[in-house]
Specification:
Length: about 240
């Protein structure tokens, strides 16, 4: 295993091991985890779970029964499993090393209530791919593409199940188009502004399977102009199970 470092997630005493030379989670993963809502007893599936950061946080942020993380890269999935054990969450979080496209076979069609995904933001042919393979696979759609992710999410979600995805605004039209195509109806679109003086560069989309067509648009400004976190962002980041 590559060299790792231990980081504090500053939430319910959760800790996480990350590769020093590999892909590390960004604030986008934290934003997505803080956006998810579910009922007690629900199963959440975390597509492309990486080192498990979203899966870990969901145990503290939601009343879910179980989180299932699916990760294609074996070394990254192994690290996610170590993080589950590190936080004594075996039995609450399950890590599967496999392709997202196999989720309907692995878990069963219409078997879960919530799917979340912080996907690779860049298509296979866009941008400069980094030399480090692990980072490249996490940033570019090398092993899965946007349509495939959404298709698999739709297949495993129960009727009225919810799908949460974070992505770049430059690909918003693609995300909404594919979600609608697979009957994941957009319900809440949250535009993420790094500062109020900047354009929104990221968004979180919540969809409901076979839902009615009604879209609520919200915004979240993460930082004030002086670099301090806004009160609305603090409230989201500090949300814990009561």
């Amino acid at each position: 295993m590559k060299d790792t470092r231990l980081d504090d997630l500053q939430c319910n005493n959760l800790k996480i091991l990350q590769y020093t030379d590999g892909y590390c989670f960004s604030s986008d993963a934290i934003l997505l985890a803080n956006s998810v809502r579910c009922n007690s007893g629900d199963t959440i599936v975390d597509f492309g779970c990486g080192n498990g950061v979203i899966s870990l946080l969901l145990t503290a942020k939601t009343p879910c029964k179980e989180v299932i993380g699916i990760e294609f890269q074996r070394d990254v999935a192994d690290l996610a499993q170590k993080n589950v054990e590190l936080n004594s969450l075996t039995g609450k979080v399950r890590i599967i090393c496999d392709d997202i496209s196999n989720a309907p076979t692995l878990l069963g069609k219409e078997s879960v209530q919530v799917v979340v995904c912080n996907p690779p933001y860049f298509s296979k042919t866009s941008g400069i791919q980094r030399e480090e393979k692990q980072i490249a696979l996490s940033r570019h759609e090398s092993t899965c593409d946007l349509e495939g992710i959404i298709k698999s999410a739709a297949a495993i979600l129960q009727f009225a199940g919810e799908f949460y995805i974070i992505h770049k605004t430059s690909r918003m039209a693609e995300v909404i188009t594919f979600c609608s195509q697979y009957r994941l109806i957009p319900k809440t679109l949250t535009l993420i502004y790094p500062k109020i003086s900047k354009n929104a560069d990221t968004f979180v989309l919540k969809c409901k399977k076979c839902g009615k067509h009604f879209l609520n648009v919200e915004k979240l400004v993460v930082y004030n102009e002086d670099g301090s976190m806004t009160e609305e962002a603090k409230a989201m980041y500090n949300k814990l199970l009561s």
